[in-house]
Amino acid sequence: MKIVIAGGHGKIARLLGALATARGDEVVGLVRNPDHLEDLAADGIVGVVRDLEQVGAPELAADLAGADAVVFAAGAGPGSGAARKDAVDRGAAALLADAATAAGVGAYLLVSSIGVDRVRDGRTPDGVDEVFVAYLRAKLAAEEDLSSRNGLRRVVLRPAGLTDEPGTGRVELAAGVDDGSVPRADVAAVALAMLDRLVGEGVDLPTVGLASGERPLREAVDALS
Question: Is the whole model's pTM more than 0.90, yes or no?
Fold first, then answer.
């Protein structure tokens, strides 16, 4: 399988890339900063410098040539304001979908976030920083854009609070998951198992939240319908 990951230097992206390359998959990581290419090479990932806020869909589609799946794991990051949350977490996710369609890529995995339903229908949750509200709105808009598209098999993964603890291999994976925490290593492993289903079975998977739990990871992914 060939996978292209937008936001290829992020922690989840690198863990996902390392898992995939270790079993023989081809992984391309799209990064904005050329200084990150060396890290990706050390992970066995082919790095491509591409600023998702500047590139157009036709040029990006060329980066996706021959890919079986794309993963959106990019983000505006800490310290960015509301405008950039929208530009990256929504706009770049939609751009990647445009490029994937143009390139004939069949599968798209969007790494979103728990909590997005709290801003659905224009709601503003109490006690939440306005920039984080903008982030949730951008993620929800990206989810809605992806769900409206034809021709892309897709899944939206909403991780709970992320930690750098070692993965446990045991998770809670369901639509109703909206709190808790989960190691990034388990997020990466779930994402790879989801890609196997999207590509291997040619199916869409439901939007699900992910937190640490008791169910074996692969079993939880296989149970999704």
Answer: yes
